[in-house]
Design a protein that fits this description.
- It catalyses: D-glyceraldehyde + ATP = D-glyceraldehyde 3-phosphate + ADP + H(+); dihydroxyacetone + ATP = dihydroxyacetone phosphate + ADP + H(+).
- Belongs to the dihydroxyacetone kinase (DAK) family.
- It comes from Circinella minor.
- About 50% of the residues lie in helices and about 15% in strands.
- The chain has helices at about 1-15, 25-40, 55-60, 100-110, 125-140, 170-180, 190-200, 250-260, 290-305, 340-350, 375-395, 405-435, 440-455, 465-475, 480-500, 505-520, 535-545, 550-560, 580-585, 590-605; strands at about 15, 40-45, 50-55, 65-70, 90-95, 115-120, 145-150, 200-210, 220, 230, 240-245, 275-285, 310-315, 325-335.
- It has a 6-stranded mixed β-sheet, sandwiched between helices. A 6-stranded mixed β-sheet has the order 11-10-8-14-12-13. A two-stranded antiparallel ribbon has the order 1-9.
- Strand 12, helix 9 and strand 13 form a beta-alpha-beta unit.
- Mean pLDDT is about 90; it is low at about 5-15, about 370-375 and about 385-400.
Length: about 600
């Protein structure tokens, strides 16, 4: 049944797509370089894909600084909002993948200010993990920094454990926070509160006529000609419902009803009453013509008026896109009833900015009666940071465990684990394409390939050093949630090996249990949530209880198999209806990939 379903999806919903690229691997970096050419007030750090203001040093001395970021493909978010009055820096991950914690830490260190730094993050698991880790590392180094996670998607009901996804409301949060930071004397707490107000009082709903396509991918998933999708995520995550094509009027009416319905307890995020003041934002998801976008603005304004709400501002344009997705999202920001507080927030929204992505529009209520290379100084600072990192790495070498590790056995285990992951990629990709965003298999394969290439250079005489090196390779090679989870586990595993040793399976079991405890402090995913934790947790638990790698590997595979019948509580599949997940009867892609890795690891230990 599962194989038939996969074939059906590939035959009817996939086709080739064209893009303007030189090399998909370098597309993000080359795009950033073009952005900096067109906007001389920007600079970028090529090795970390961090975009920042050219005058960052003087800015940091005088005000709270702001950072945002995430996967690329959502332009102008976030690099297009770097400049006077908004962001001080933006961090760019691979397409639809979170930047690594080291990239983010570089940005924080680059813009650190005695007044503090605020980091604004979209509510996606990978972004929250990586940005959170970077913020904690920065705090440990004495940097004054705080973070706000924005979730404004009403397609996700409030009973969801993953929370609302971050959409265009995140850009509004960055706008008001940036304006607040530019006000002389503003504190970090005041800037944080400005962003938090938007987070708590905004709601967004998107609709797409079709899925977007990731450059470099050989296929593209498509909606049938007789369907559009309401609530489709900005990474192609399934929405709340599929509808027949509707007129713009009918479609907007349905969307505004969902955004404002006070009876829907699962989605009534905005507390509205007669004449509640609101800001309306209509966002192009990337593939809608200006002609159609303006029609959607007209319909949105009229639909909001019909709900007896008072519109204070209307914003339209491309704020947070999804590559070439033909669709729009509508955001409502509920303003304060108190006129003084309301005007203060509107002043922040109207504050003039010098950024390429924010539109210049009228700041009055409408009468609705009817690569630029881094400077030498910056390069020197980058070199200083590199030297600091090197010193830290040298210090870590002093912690290497005293017990002896079998380097040949360790090399065999790593190589076979990586080879098994590469061989499993087509199957993992198929599962993730149907019940995810399609990148899990490619991500795992890229990391595995990089690890095999680096094998001759790994410090295989040290289990501790090898685990840290593997974490570093994965972080530099791929991004996203899977990368963060693997890196946290491997880093903690290295620390566990330095504590317990690495000469026998008992010591590795204790270190693995230590690593699992550390990982679980960063994620709430547990057995039964339909994630890779359904495979990892049983593996570690059985290994700790039995010291038997064969039994532990079987437990990991059984855990992956069990996800076929589980309802998704975490991860991208949690946005899919329970019925669709049940009907597909496919395992979680991340758990399946991990089971393949564990089986390869076990095989290598026997060679």
């Amino acid at each position: 049944k599962s194989i038939c379903l996969i074939i059906y999806y590939h035959l009817f919903f996939f086709s080739l797509a064209k893009h303007l690229v030189n090399d998909s691997e370098n597309l993000v970096s080359e795009s950033i370089q073009g952005l900096c050419y067109a906007n001389p007030h920007l600079r970028w750090i090529p090795s970390e894909r961090v975009v920042c203001r050219a005058d960052v040093e003087s800015v940091a001395q005088n005000q709270v600084t702001l950072i945002a970021g995430g996967g690329s493909g959502h332009e102008p978010g976030f690099a297009g909002f770097v400049g006077e009055g908004m962001l001080t820096a933006a961090v760019c991950g691979h397409v639809f993948a979170s930047p690594s914690s080291s990239q983010i830490l570089t940005a924080i260190e680059r813009v650190q200010s005695p007044h503090g730094t605020l980091v604004i993050v979209l509510n996606y698991t990978g972004d929250c993990l990586n940005f959170g880790l970077a913020v904690e590392r920065a705090k440990a180094r004495g940097i004054l920094v705080d973070m706000v996670i924005v979730g404004d998607d009403v397609a996700i009901e409030n009973k969801s454990r993953v929370g609302r996804r971050g959409l265009a409301g995140t850009i509004v949060a960055a706008k008001v926070a940036g304006a607040m930071a530019a006000q002389k004397g503003s504190t970090l707490e005041q800037v944080r509160q400005a962003a938090e107000y938007v987070n708590k009082h905004s709601a967004t709903l998107g609709v797409a006529l079709d899925h977007c396509h990731v450059p470099g991918s050989t296929t593209v998933q498509k909606l049938p000609d007789d369907q559009i999708e309401l609530g489709l995520g900005i990474h192609n995550e399934p929405g709340t419902s599929k509808l027949p094509p509707l007129s713009a009027n009918e479609l907007v009416h349905k969307m505004i009803t969902l955004l404002t319905n006070q009876e829907d307890q699962g989605r009534a995020y905005l507390k509205l009453n007669q004449k509640s003041p609101v800001v309306v934002l209509v966002n192009n998801l990337g593939g809608i013509s200006t002609l159609e976008l303006n029609l959607m603005v007209k319909e949105t304004v009229q639909a909001v008026i019909q709900q007896n709400l008072e519109i204070k501002r209307v914003l339209s344009g491309t704020f947070l896109s999804s590559l070439n997705m033909p669709g729009v999202s509508i955001t409502l920001l509920r303003l304060q009833d108190d006129s003084q507080e309301q005007n203060q927030l509107l002043d922040l929204l109207d504050y003039n900015v010098l950024v390429p992505g924010w539109p210049r529009t009228s700041s009055v209520s409408l009468p609705f009666t009817t690569s630029i290379a881094m400077t030498d100084e910056n390069n020197n600072k980058k070199q200083e940071a590199s030297n600091t990192t090197k010193t830290s790495a040298d210090n870590e070498k002093l912690i290497i465990e005293k017990s002896v590790v079998d380097s040949r056995l360790l090399e065999n285990a790593i190589r076979e684990a990586a080879k098994n992951v590469i061989e499993a990629e087509p199957e993992v990709t198929s599962f993730d394409t149907i019940l995810g965003d399609g990148d899990c298999g490619i991500t795992l394969k890229s990391a595995a390939t990089a690890i095999i290439e680096a094998l001759p250079k790994l410090p295989l005489d040290s289990g501790h050093g090898t685990m840290l090196a593997l974490a570093d390779i994965i972080e530099r090679t791929v991004g996203g949630t899977s990368s963060a989870i693997y890196c946290i586990f491997l880093s903690a595993l290295g620390a566990g090996l330095s504590k317990y040793g690495s000469s026998n399976v008992t010591e590795w079991a204790k270190a693995s249990s230590h690593a699992l405890d550390a990982l679980q402090s960063y994620t709430s995913a547990r057995v039964g949530d339909r994630t890779l934790m359904d495979s990892l947790i049983p593996f570690v638990q059985v290994l700790s209880n039995t010291n038997n790698i064969d039994e532990a590997t079987k437990a990991g595979r059984q855990g992956a198999e069990s996800t076929r019948t589980l309802q998704a509580h975490m991860g991208r599949a949690s946005y899919i209806s329970t019925e669709d997940v049940k009907q597909a009867a496919l395992p979680d892609a991340g758990a399946w990939g991990l089971a393949a890795l564990l089986e390869g690891l076990n095989s290598g230990l026997k060679k």
